[in-house]
Backbone:
């Protein structure tokens, strides 16, 4: 059977109580979208960093004796290449090492006299399990001035920072949802007051609570959807501008800031989520109010 | 069909406004509910159209103890009762036709059939040319007739009318009362609350008389009732 609609609520009767609701929902969705975009960006960047770094080991050979250094680098590289689970071993040329320093010291400030350690970049095979402490200990026997960095300390701090940022974003989303619910409860109560006579009449001529609540929830669903679409449009424009500015600044630390289909779906689900929250809040508010009638 | 036994009623924690009300309305009967203003007629009507629960006593309607009935059982009972409210309670933003269609839309049914039936009823009450009129553009008597059409469209078992002649001239009052009598002939049980004794006397139906919240007198000139 088709879903019945009475269309019994006067369109303009609750204008005062619901006029601003779409705009409030728009602001809420705007904030939620920004929080979600930030969360996804941080999550994406951290995943990219940690994904890269988790498969990397760096070996430094620090000795001023050039001949010993070259010998130790060769021995260390030979040892590392022979290890199971090692995909590639790359001995960085002096120029590559100086290029790494240039962003920190400034272009033209790096010359060949700078005492820098020799670096060996080790890439592990996908899914390989290695024991850095055992490798480091064995490495000392073939290259006494070598030290191994598995980046775990740095990765741990990055993960902590990312978890904190993600926690804040989730808290923002939760608070925005709660604020939306509070506002809709207020709006639904005001709407009930505006339609009091109509509701009483419908009730007395035999309308079920759910049928009356449906009149409200449909109205609030549309208001929520309208606000949600406006909020998402504003957020999309803001995110687009932010991406352009970050791209122009060349802030490589944030990564390429691409957006996956899943992330896009999450952003586009926000107006639907807002509309759903608005609709259900209105429904339960109205049902609770109706239960106070005989 | 309707049985009140020692019913008392109060609003909130206020004093009792109806005391020990006992009566029976048999199916197909026609009664007037009379009494001066403030006697409790509207309160008794509120009990009858299930807008209020009694504070004591027992009410049985259509074989169901409504005092013990769950809240979600009441809408189905209400749909068996047609009510002509004293202030009509027409929905201002709906047309006369849409107002009349409302009870059947609530009950569910095919929209086309509901519309046809509502149009037929409005013709029957003499408002065939005012289908699209909003209540605010109708006279008191016309609104009254729309309210009657709305009250009877679902073919209720019981029709309650609160001062149905209160807002109309004597000629219209006469026409409305004959309209209600005609419905009664089709089997609808009627209870008409009024303080217009001229109307009561002219119809010769039985009456329940309320004074000070007490059912004092039960006239027995009509058919099928008891006290």
Residues:
């Amino acid at each position: 059977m088709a879903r019945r609609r009475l269309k019994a609520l006067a369109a303009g009767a609750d204008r005062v109580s619901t006029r601003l609701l779409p705009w409030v929902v728009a602001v809420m969705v705007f904030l939620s979208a920004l929080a979600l975009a930030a969360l996804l960006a941080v999550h994406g960047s951290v995943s990219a960093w940690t994904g890269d770094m988790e498969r990397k080991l760096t070996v430094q050979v620090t000795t001023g004796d050039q001949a010993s250094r070259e010998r130790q680098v060769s021995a260390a590289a030979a040892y590392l290449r022979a290890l199971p689970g090692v995909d590639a071993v790359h001995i960085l040329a002096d120029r590559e090492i100086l290029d790494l320093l240039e962003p920190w010291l400034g272009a033209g400030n790096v010359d060949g006299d700078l005492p820098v350690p020799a670096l060996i970049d080790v890439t592990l095979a996908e899914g390989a399990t290695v024991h850095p402490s055992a490798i480091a200990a064995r490495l000392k026997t073939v290259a006494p001035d070598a030290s191994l960095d598995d980046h775990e300390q740095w990765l741990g701090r990055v993960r902590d920072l990312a978890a904190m940022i993600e926690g804040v974003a989730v808290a923002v989303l939760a608070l925005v949802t709660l604020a939306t619910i509070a506002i809709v409860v207020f709006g639904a109560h005001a709407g009930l007051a505006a339609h009091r006579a109509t509701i009483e009449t419908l009730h007395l001529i035999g309308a079920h609570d759910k049928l009356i609540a449906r009149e409200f929830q449909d109205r609030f669903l549309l208001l929520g959807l309208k606000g949600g679409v406006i909020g998402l449009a504003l957020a999309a424009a803001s995110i687009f501008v932010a991406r352009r500015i970050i791209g122009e600044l060349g802030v490589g630390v944030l990564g390429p800031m691409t957006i996956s289909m899943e992330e896009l779906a999450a952003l586009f689900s926000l107006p639907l989520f807002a509309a759903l929250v608005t609709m259900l809040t209105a429904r339960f508010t109205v049902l609770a109010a109706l239960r106070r009638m005989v | 069909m309707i049985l009140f036994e020692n019913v008392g009623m109060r609003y909130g924690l206020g004093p009792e406004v109806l005391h020990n009300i006992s009566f029976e309305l048999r199916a197909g009967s026609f009664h007037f509910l009379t009494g001066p203003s403030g006697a409790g007629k509207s309160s008794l009507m509120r009990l009858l159209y299930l807008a209020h629960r009694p504070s004591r006593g027992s009410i049985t309607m259509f074989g169901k103890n409504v005092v013990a009935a769950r809240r979600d059982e009441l809408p189905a009972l209400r749909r068996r009762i047609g009510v002509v409210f004293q202030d009509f309670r027409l929905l201002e933003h709906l047309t006369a036709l849409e107002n009349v269609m409302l009870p059947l839309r609530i009950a569910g049914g095919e929209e086309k059939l509901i519309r046809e039936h509502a149009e037929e009823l409005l013709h029957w009450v003499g408002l065939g040319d005012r289908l699209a009129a909003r209540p605010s553009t109708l006279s008191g008597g016309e609104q009254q007739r729309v309210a009657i059409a709305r009250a009877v469209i679902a073919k209720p078992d019981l029709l309650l009318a609160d001062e149905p002649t209160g807002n109309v001239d004597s000629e219209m009052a006469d026409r409305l009362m004959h309209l209600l009598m005609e419905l009664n002939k089709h089997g609808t049980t009627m209870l008409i609350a009024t303080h217009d004794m001229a109307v009561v006397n002219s119809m010769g139906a039985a009456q329940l008389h309320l004074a000070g919240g007490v059912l004092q007198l039960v006239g027995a000139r009509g058919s099928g009732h008891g006290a």
